[in-house]
Structures are given as C-alpha cells and as structure tokens.
Write a structure and sequence with these properties.
Pfam families: DUF3656, Peptidase_U32. This is Collagenase-like PrtC family protease. By secondary structure, the chain is α/β, with parallel strands linked by helices. The chain has 4 domains: about 240 residues, Alpha-Beta Barrel (TIM Barrel); about 140 residues, no CATH class; about 100 residues, Thrombin, subunit H (Beta Barrel); about 100 residues, Enolase-like, domain 1, CATH 3.30.390. Helices cover about 25% and strands about 25% of the residues. It has 15 helices and 31 strands. α12 links the parallel β26 and β27. The radius of gyration is 29 Å and the shape is globular.
Amino acid sequence: MPHSHELELLAPARDADIGIEAIRHGADAVYIGGPGFGARASAGNSVADIARLTKYAHRFNSRIFVTLNTILRDDELEGARRMAWDVYEAGADALIIQDMGLLELDLPPIQLHASTQTDIRTPEKARFLQDVGFSQIVLARELSLAEIAGVRDTLDPDRCTIEFFIHGALCVAFSGQCYISHAHTGRSANRGECSQACRLPYQVLDAQGRFVAHDAHVLSMKDNNQSLNLGPLIDAGVRSFKIEGRYKDMAYVKNITAHYRKLLDDIQDERPELARASSGRVNLGFTPDPLQNFNREFTDYFVNGRKEDIGAFDTPKNPGQPIGFVSRVAADHFEMHTDEPGLRLSNGDGLCYWNQQKELVGAQTNRVENIKQEGVDGPSSLWRVFPKDAMSALEDLRKGTVIHRNRSMDWVRTLEKKSSDRRMGVWVHLSECDGGLQLALTDEDGHTGQSRAELDWSAPKDEAGASLKLRESLSRLGETDFAPFDIQLALSRPWFVPASTMNALRREAVGALESARAKAWERLPRAQAVSPPVPYPDDTLSYLANVFNHKAHDFYSRHGVKVIDAAYESQQEEGEVSLMITKHCVRFSLSLCPKQAKGVIGVKGTIKAEPLQLVNGKEKLTLRFDCKPCEMHVVGKIKRGILAHGAREAAEHSLVFYKKSTAN
C-alpha cells in the first residue's frame, strides 16, 4: 500500500522470472499467483519462486502481492490458510482476495487487498471493505472519473488505497458477476477457470427473431489503455495503477511496464508533491510501444463516460497496425508497398488482412526481400513477401488489400535481450581517516554503507590527474544496484590508491549499504477491522455475492446480513437468472438504444429496450436491458448435465460448500 502521496505501478507476472523483469523495467509492485487458489488457474507458482521474487523485489523497496482470489469450498479453506502462511513466510507483502470467508480464519499478519472480483462500484461498499480490514481495493474497471472520486471521498487515504486497472484485456462483465462459463461448461470464472464465452461470435436476434447482427463478437471488448488519463486518475484518487496480464509473456510485461513507468515518471517530475512507491530509476534499452504487443485495439472504456466504440466486434484476435498495401500477387509470393519508406520487414513477421467477409486472415512471412528502387538509399518501400502458407490459402488477397503487421520479429528480438537496468542513486564520499581512507555510500532513501582501508599516504605520479582517476574508479559500481549521483573527495592532498585497494573499498561499502537496506526493510502493516463490526450496506445477499463456504456466510451474518443466498457455483439457481451483468450495452453499441433515438425525427416512441437473443450453435442467451442504471443482463440457465456432474463430483470427492436452506 503506497502512502497517499506515492504512486504505485503494479505489474503482472506469470512466473518469478517475469516478475523480476517487471521490477527491472520499473514496477513498484508485482502481483503473482501462488501455489493455488488464484483467479488464473494455470498461472500458479511455488513458494520457493515467491521467495526468490520477493528477495529481488525488496532490494528496490518493491512489493509482491500474491493472488488468493477465488471463491473457496469449505474443504479448501484450510489449504488456503496454510498457503497464506507459506507465502507470508516467503516474504510476500500482501494477499489479494475475493472470498470473505478468509477473514474468519487465522491468517498471518499480512496486508489484505480486495480483488476486482469483489465488484467494488459504490462508495458504500468501498468504505465497508476499508472498515473490515482491507488496505487496498481494486475498483471496477467500469467506473468513471467522477465515480472514482466519489469512492476517494469516502475513504481514509491513510488506511485504504485505490487501485485501478490502466491497461490490458477487459472482462465485459462486472468482475465477479459472470457465470456463463459455469452454466455452460462447469468451469467457474470465480474459481479461475473462465471459458471466455465473451470472445465467441454470436447471431443477434431481436424480439421477433429477426437478425440484428451476424457472427459478431458483441461481448468482446477492445483492450484497456489509460495512457492519456493518468493525470485525471491521480486527481480522482487512484494511487495504484494496475496492468492486466498474468497470462502474458515476458515481452508484454517488459514493454507495458516500461511504457507506464515513463509516463508516471514524467508526471512525477512535473508534480513534486508526488513520489514513487519504490526506489531506483530505470534506464531502458528500447522505446516502449503498446502497439507492438497483442491488443484488440484500444479503448479507455468508461473512464470518460459511455462511448459507442468500445467493442472488438469483428474479431477477438490481434489485428495489428496497418503498414502498407498489396501491389502485386504472384503464384508463390505477393509484393507490397509500405506506408513509411523506412519501415523494415523481417523473416517471421506476422502479417494479416481483412477478407471480404470481414474476417482476419493471417499471412506470416517465411521470407521477405526488399526490392531496390532507383534514387532510394537504404530499404525501399517495396517488399516481396513469401508467406509461410500457400498463396492459395490466403483468401481474397488481391491488389490494393491493406496489410497489417501484428508481430515484428525485430521487436521480438529486442525484448529477448537485456532491455533495462534499474539502479538506485548514491552519493559517494571518500575521505581521510586515521590510518588510511574511508568510503561512504549514501543512497536515495538515506541508508549509508561505509568501508575503511588502512593505507599509508603515497603521492601519485600524476598529481594533476589524480582526482579524476579516483573519481573514475569510484564511479565503477558495475553490476550492483547502485549508480553515483555525485562523487566528493574530501582529501587534504592528492593520493595514490592502488586499484586493488579501491576495489575492496567499493565492494565492502556496497555490501554494507545492502545490509543497511535489508535491516531497514519493514513489512506492510495489516489493517485492523473497525470494532464493533460495521454493517454491510445491504441486509440481503443473492447468489451474486458469491458466498461459497460457511465461513463467508458467518462473515456476512456477523456484519448484519439477514438473508444470504448461496453462490451460483452451489448450483441452487436452476432456472433462468442473470449469468452476466455488464455496463456494456449491445443495443447502444448497435445504435438501437432508446436514449440514442430521443429527438430523432421519425423514430420517437418506436425504439424500445426490448430483449435481444444471442445464439452460438446450440447455446442461447437472452439480453435484457436495465435502462435506469444503464446496465445489461445476459440471462440463461445452467445445463442439466452440469447440474448432474456437479452433484456426482460433490458426492464422489466429499466436497463441502455452502448451500442456503431454511435453517439458515
């Protein structure tokens, strides 16, 4: 949890190696899955790897947050409690959790952060979570600047920090409020196994069964990018800026972390009242560019209000960037002109284009040749492309087709190499002492490491250049975590210092400084819940509260809730219910919203928010529209086979979870 004047850049990590690179590229904190119970089921890590990552992170005062953010059965609670202790002892700084049953257990004194899966959209819920002991809360991605500021105004900034997603894939549902995957496949998004039904193509039918859209990915969102909104988000109260992507590769984490590090550093350089939440500055070996990584094009979603163009309806794939057009098609290759004469193609580049059916077709290059043009120095704008696949497989590729590139091998190779250094600044002070010399290194956080060398004074051969030689030697901090801010020589006369002596002085001073930093390290404090227990904002909870174990039931009961339904995964909701609740509105995106029609001559009174139907193969879902809060509900019911399989599994493996009954 950063202090109220500190900004925290929070990066994802699939594994410890990626986490280390995130820190090296400027992350103030990293979130990563532990051995189990994370909302990305296949992104777990051993306790040993957590320990390795925390050891590296703490060198820079960076923090490691471990995800424990699935809903848990009763028979899983003890395993989750043990895991919490294991990662705490490995040095983890916080747990990111969804299940309130965990607060009823004997957890270690580790800081708790409320996952985005807890669906925090209102000041009342945010305040409640602060008062029950959460130090950081991840707000819903759908909030506007004004709504974020409303949450800020209800919180105590010294007790609870606002965290907000600024980049990456967008879940179309309010997080924690999507059950389509469980209803259709038995794989619960709240248990880290989402089947991503939102990325499928659907036929959209109106209330009369007429086609409104054909094979459209109407639930697929573009990717989040808040690069232009960081200043306003800071003003609205955000202090932890979160990058999505625990499934993403190292190149993505390097690039996107570095991108936002530069943007936040620029803001902090202009606003001295703000500070970084960790130590050190980053020196990059490349220029960050979010367009180079997989993306479905970008949106800032609802931060600046509702917009029509937030969906990736044509494809959930990465269309890349337009780079040129086809000028000639041959039997085994095609030729293309690039829009920029200096743009280079490489063997292995990923190219693609849209065919006549508006489908994205891949055309990965096997080999490329630059075709020389008269009067052009260096690479020309004309290229011959030999694709990996046969030309006959490239449907609708013809003269004039616009070519996109969604993978640059030159970029890939750049990020496969070492691409960043992170160093903490130190003031270097060399002085005389009884019997020799003393070296002091004082870092940017005020820690000091000292060393001494017993050495008789000896005059240098080149007195005029002696000081310069000493400064050069003192600046050689090599592969350490430090770089000199300033070097001062407090010497009464020129000295000759043997290289071996100077090397030992530097090495011992760096070691002493590292020891001082380690000794000064402090764990984040665990917030205390308000006593007596504060009441939950509502006295009734439906399946949408995701209560899946008896400890979670006890938690809400202790906070004044009278009626507590079981989680959808308890499989007690056998009829049609809302399987997804979202702020995205298909009617609005297709220009069929009644509010859009107001004032339009000829349509007044004829456009109504009637239900629509989504069809994908045998799967059918109904869209219902709640226009007052401007929300859409995707309605359906659980498959009979899923109900039967769940009952068999519970019986065979003695699974225990909360089910509401009249006794509750």
